[in-house]
Amino acid sequence: MEFHQAPQTFVSQVDLKVSDLERSLAFYQQIIGFQIIKQTDKVAFLTADGKTPLVKIEQPDNVREKQSRTTGLYHFAILLPSRKDLGKILQHFLEVGYPLQGASDHLVSEAIYLADPDGNGIEIYADRPASTWVWNDGQVHMTTEPIDAQGLLAEGRGQKWEGLPSGTTMGHIHLHVSELEKIEEFYCKGLGFNIVTRYGNQALFLSTGGYHHHIGLNTWNGIGAPKPADNSVGLKWFTLQFPSEEARQQVLENLRSLEVMVSEVEGSYFIEDPSGNRIQLNI
Prior knowledge:
Distance between the termini: 18 Å
Low-confidence stretches: none
CATH superfamily: 2,3-Dihydroxybiphenyl 1,2-Dioxygenase, domain 1
Pfam family, one: Glyoxalase
CATH class: Alpha Beta
Shape: globular
Number of strands: 19
Strand content: 35-45%
Organism: Heyndrickxia oleronia
Number of helices: 5
Structural class: alpha+beta
Helix content: 10-25%
Number of domains: 1
Oligomer: single chain
CATH topology: 2,3-Dihydroxybiphenyl 1,2-Dioxygenase, domain 1
Mean pLDDT: 96
Strand order of the largest sheet: 11-6-7-8-5-12-15-14-13
Protein name: Glyoxalase
InterPro entries: Glyas_Bleomycin-R_OHBP_Dase, Glyas_Fos-R_dOase_dom, VOC_core
């Protein structure tokens, strides 16, 4: 997981709004395999290793159902340590009969797609070795091909599924945005990410340190898509983990030069991208 530790900048946690906390907890524990490390009446922190929170779920007051055709979460992506782990969780999904939305071979990785009870998109994936990724002029070659489901299941055959393994991390996040020009400036000039793939004028994929992507951005909900209501089910914010305070301060300086408003709440810095997606800047 060298792409998800210092000196890289990466997504470390996703904070979600849900309509029914108990229903969501049942899903995230029994179907995905998270553990709870902290819980109140309205909030729960979820972990794979028993100590590091990867997902926070919260039930807002007067919550409303997920709004369509808005900016916000397309999916968050849980990165498993190995292909065997991906095979084991695929077998688990088949055994419990949970509906899957798809499964793809992206060449750099193999991925399974589903959604939580509120429609929040989830990708669960395993990377192929970075030495096998194909790069041309700074762009990594990714595609969408049918997954070798039988090969995956064979990898995990005979292995009991016991939840998410301790080496699980937050692999990336993929967001709906309202346009790409200002978004590109914000994430590249402001936050310091590099573009590693362009899908025409519809999507961008960004990373640090030569990863295939830490952040995906698309306009598939429409150019000019509005920001969802604050109490709508969906993404509350995601956390970017910086390798040092010096690196974070440089990014804050970059953002202020772009006239991005930075708010500080109890020692934490928060910003919004030009499409209204909220981000916490952490070290």
